[in-house]
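During the reporting period the student researcher (J.K.) took over the structure-prediction task from the postdoctoral fellow and processed the backlog of single-chain submissions. One of the processed entries is reproduced below for the supervisory committee.
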Amino acid sequence: MKTTARIGLLMLSLLSFFSCKAYTDLTADAFGKMLSDDTSVQLVDVRTPEEYAEGHLSRAILVDWKDGAFLDNARALLDPARPVLVYCRSGRRSAEAAKALSEASFRVFNLRGGYLAWTGAGCPVTRYEVERFLTPGGNPVDITLIKHGSLALSCLGLTIQVDPVGEFGKHTDYAAEFPKADVILVTHEHPDHLEAKTIDILTGEHTRLLLNGTSAGILGKGEVLANGDSVALAEGIALKAVPAYNTTPGREKFHPKGNGNGYVLTIDGLRIYIAGDTEDIPEMADLKAIDVAFLPVNQPFTMTVDQCVAAVGRFAPKVLIPYHFSQTDLSGLPVRLPQTDVRLRQMQ
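J.K. obtained the following structure tokens:
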């Protein structure tokens, strides 16, 4: 074999070696198909928080590639047994992140061309933040923070909508942005928590609607849960309705005792408390081992900031995400609750 031929063969071998990737590049169409077809996938946006806030793929969690603790953060949030889909703005950062994740034993798929390719193909995006928590069994629970009192949870293959309202505060296109729900929870009948049109949009053939008695009377359907009632939603997912009401003299009319519900979800051992509209009621002392708490801080209808601090003192959740707070100033909460992971998000 001539020297030039040997050199050519060697160069081709080296090129093949260095171009071999431990992750898979996907077009926007293939990426979207995998997202819709495989409920076990974990979607990761590796851009900066500022980029994420301007728009991101629905259900994407943020793990900033530029953060020096990227791999540590990824390991804390992701299950190595489930496929990971990553993207950035144009595909460069996500390619680097995909390589690092692959070397850390994750099975990774990268969006070729990134966010620009996705939006260029006309695929939908959202601005809703997503918080991810892992159950004691290692299963991810993704909570989409829609607005005000509206949340969406995705866990163990189940989708749960809480107080879905399309037109309160800001418009939410539930038909375009969310799939049909497996479970819809309604805390009470006020129009910022109950909207028949949106419930109809989210209701599929097998959707289960769980709500308080007054809301069921308005809608003429659903399974009524009274304070203290418990039901199983699926294997590994239990739900309990708990009291939610006003106690301050003159405010009882807003949310009378015995009418509305808060909900405690236990998902593979992870306990999430969604308080509904309530003040810091004595029954909160009965809550045990709460990992994540959503507490309303919207005086005079729910809690004052002082009441929120008192409520946390009653049951000591690991993570507090205030919601339903309108224009209430929450900036002092993290300082006043140093033992609690307080996460201030866009949940006006």
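The committee noted the following: The chain has two domains: 21-120, 129-342.
J.K. will present the remaining backlog at the next meeting.
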